[in-house]
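Problem: given the chain below (271 residues), write out its structure.
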Amino acid sequence: MKLRRKTPFTLMKLFRNACVRAASQVAPTMVGLMFFSAAHADEVEFDRLITLTPTPAAPANAAGTGRAVFGFVDVGAVIGIPTNRFEVAVSGLLPGTYSVQLYNYEAPTTNEIGGGWFTVGENDTGTVSAVVANVPYYVGPSTLRDFTIMDSNNVILRGDFADVTAMKSGRVQATVPVEPRELAAAASGTAAINGTAKNGRARGTFRLLAENLPAQTNLLLRITGAEDKLVRSSRRGQIRVRSSAKKVNLFTLSTVSIRDSSTNELAHAEF
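Solution.
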């Protein structure tokens, strides 16, 4: 299912600001809807299902998966409403209440960003599924990292949303604008990611088109999780870049920075 916001970027900024004001006045709930701001994304789709690994403290047959879904659904022709959720499906756990912790990585630290809970009943003999966790509105899916499940004393299942090899399935799609910085005030363009993952293998591409940069100039391209790359702008001040999932982790790509030879930032894109 494709979740897409088709409305103008300016309207989405107004909606996002309204969410920020509302979030500052309303206490978060343990289970339910979560707001997601994909930086300045014009369309976002993120769906990742990972295998959770039992720890030594887990029951012998414990197993499970964690799933994160971020996106937008259209409401009329005016704005898109964020619809985000985290799900767990577990089996082999003893009856009781279990807590869920979510972490993201914002360099240079890993932070706990939300949590929730679910219950395994006395008569639950198969797989137990639940929608869990609340996440701050400002957390983007590309920064997601650890996902843990605890009993009353210990972590018993754990997974990593950044680990492609742990993905049973995944989907990410986003298009964001290239925004200018002071040294290149007219810079513009788009950055896009489109990728899938299945059974630990990722496919897809990252694409960048940036315009109105200094012409015929050697520039530095800095992408989250990838080595810095030297590129040269055209006579018209354009750069075009295309990278595959083998070179860039599409599921953790959060920022793109275009810099001059002195590493001064000229333009920036954020997923």
